[in-house]
Amino acid sequence: MSNRLRQSTLIIAGHGSSKSPNMARPARLHAQYIKDKNIFADVKTAFWKEDTKLKDALEGVNTKEVVIVPNLACSGHINQVVIPREMGLTGPLSVRGEQIIHLCKPVGEHAALPALIGDRLKEVMHQRDLPPSQTTVFLVAHGNPNPDRPASHDTTLMMATRIYQHFPVHAILPTFIEEKPFLHGWQKRTDSPNIVFLPFMIAAGTHGAKDIPNFVGVQPTEKQAEDMRELGIPAGPFQVDDQRLWLMRAMGSHPRIADFIIDIARKQLS
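-> structure tokens emitted (270 positions)
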């Protein structure tokens, strides 16, 4: 198996953004970490909305096998439609001449992710003396108002249940930016004295930096925003009426996500 990996190219595929340069940063950091391990013949990143574009990602790739791991939260429209369309793929397995191209499940569906999120929540709450029985966690996802694209909604509900199984708090409530139940209505859903907002977004970009604080009604300082983005230090506490709020960084920046990407690629080639 190790020889097969060393003869393959890994492409970490993501959304990217022309407006938020930080959105692609986690994928690039994961790619460098994996590249330094010398597991694959080469490791690349490719994005829908920024360079290197998905449509150009396969240019100059000469290995017999290519493994594409979407750096996404769920198997939604981007994973099922955009990536295959932009990269000229015919499905989960595509053949171009003598080259075999594997399109894998997204990293957000890795079986170990709920436990990783649960462990991180436990760590954050312990450091801040937040009693689990008095703390509600909002799992914030993008969502999609189109009922024909339920992947984000369904995956987030399932993830909330699985996280709770690993680390039970007062409640773990799914909420969305673009569909019901909307994030901006959070106060109507809980009276817990402590609230933690955790983006279920592999690369939160402007959603994590601006949208979530705006919808919640808080404004981190530049130092808090930088510490959250660069160091993963939750911003807070913010006082809203009788409740204390904390904002966490999206889990896609966690170093172990890179190991999940390796694991997905390894299993695909097994």
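The chain has two domains: 2-106+254-268, 113-201+206-249.
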